[in-house]
């Protein structure tokens, strides 16, 4: 049951994050191209950080790999 719930939360978060970044894109339109590139690179990876606990919870029931 974890994976369907986590998938719905993930989908909702991604949609909200896209709307947020798209809203800021109007504000950064006048920035130099290099600054826009930096903004979009950071925004492209920043969505992962708040979702790390969700991914850990979602995969919490998965078997652990061992080197034994």
Annotate the secondary structure layout.
Layout: H1 2-27, H2 33-46, H3 48-58
Short description:
The protein is an all-alpha fold.
Report on the architecture of this protein.
This protein is mostly helical and 68 residues long. The protein has 3 helices and no strands. Helix 1 runs antiparallel to helix 3. The model has no long low-confidence stretch (mean pLDDT 86).
Question: What is the C-alpha radius of gyration, as a whole number of Å?
Answer: 17 Å
As for the number of domains, it is 1
In whole angstroms, the N-to-C terminal distance is 30 Å
Give the overall silhouette: elongated
- How much is the average pLDDT? 86
Secondary-structure-derived class: mainly alpha
**Residue share in helix:** over 70%
- List unreliable stretches of 5+ residues: none
Give me the strand/helix succession: HHH
| Total number of strands | 0
Q: What percentage of the residues does DSSP assign to strands (E)? A: under 5%
Number of helices: 3
Task: Report the major sheet.
Answer: none
Q: Which key phrases capture this entry?
A:
68 residues; mainly alpha
